[in-house]
UniProtKB/TrEMBL annotation:
Belongs to the HAD-like hydrolase superfamily. CbbY/CbbZ/Gph/YieH family. Keywords: Hydrolase. The keyword Repeat does not apply. The keyword Zinc-finger does not apply. Its EC number is 3.1.3.18. GO terms for biological process: DNA repair. Pathway: Organic acid metabolism; glycolate biosynthesis; glycolate from 2-phosphoglycolate: step 1/1. One of its GO terms (molecular function) is phosphoglycolate phosphatase activity. Pfam families: HAD_2 (PF13419). It comes from Bilophila wadsworthia (strain 3_1_6). GO terms for cellular component: cytosol. This is phosphoglycolate phosphatase.
Length: 229
């Protein structure tokens, strides 16, 4: 991104958050980690174990936005679902897939920088309890509070997770952004009244579009009001 583009992004952020930015809500898959290929590989392993062909492009698009339960019910028949617990016990996601995941470049540095400036950080994800395994892998468990998973609140596009985070922080929606990459993220953000920062999703309608976290941090550094005052 050219210097002028960082300037443009900073200007967009200032117009989007005229009273300042006090908190950021993060989606996980496609934002914090680029998990698409890893997740598809894991689902293909499960499919192979029940004698089915690899996941289709249509299925891949659905499972990346859904909860694990929704994804499995979408891919497998009721009879096949009965076989999955034993297969998953032999091939746990946390042992097979999780070690392959990597944080998006620049994310960890930006998170620490934001925390130092008093910006609250939360997560609203359609992952389940495995979200904590992911945070632990990257030593980020203490970075986010609260963490809204599909086992705590209804899954996105329901905005319940956004509302719970705002209630916990006692912030108005105008001072909080939601960084997401999918239509379900956009719907949850809209339902919660918070602006969407679309991550690497140029076709997703959003207040702001971001292509990487280093550029986002550079733009945030120019905001006159950052963190809770």
């Amino acid at each position: 991104m050219m210097q002028s583009s960082v300037t443009t992004l900073a200007s967009l952020l200032e117009r989007t958050f005229p009273a300042g930015l006090s908190g950021l809500i993060f989606d996980c898959d496609g934002v914090m980690v680029d998990s698409r290929d890893v997740n598809i590989g894991y689902y293909n392993l499960l499919l192979r174990e029940v004698g089915k062909p690899p996941i289709t492009p249509e299925q891949a698009g659905y499972v990346q936005m859904s909860t694990a339960k929704e994804a499995l019910e979408y891919i497998f028949s009721p009879e096949e679902l009965k076989l999955l617990p034993a297969i998953a016990e032999r091939y746990p996601y946390r042992d097979v897939a999780l070690p392959q995941l990597e944080l998006e470049p620049g994310l960890a540095d930006m998170l620490h920088w934001l925390r130092e400036r008093g910006v609250r950080l939360g997560i609203h994800t359609n992952r389940g309890s495995g979200m904590w395994d992911l945070l632990a892998r990257f030593n980020l468990c203490e970075m986010f509070d609260p963490v809204m998973t599909a086992e705590i609140v209804p899954s996105k596009p329901d905005p319940a997770g956004v509302h719970r985070i705002l209630e916990t922080w006692k912030f108005g929606p105008e001072s909080v952004g939601f960084i997401g990459d999918s239509a379900t993220d956009a719907a949850a953000a809209q339902g919660g009244g918070v602006p969407l920062l679309a991550y690497n999703s140029p076709d997703l309608p959003a207040a702001v579009h971001v292509d990487n976290f280093a550029h986002l941090r550079s733009a945030l550094e120019r905001l006159p009001r950052l963190g809770r005052t």
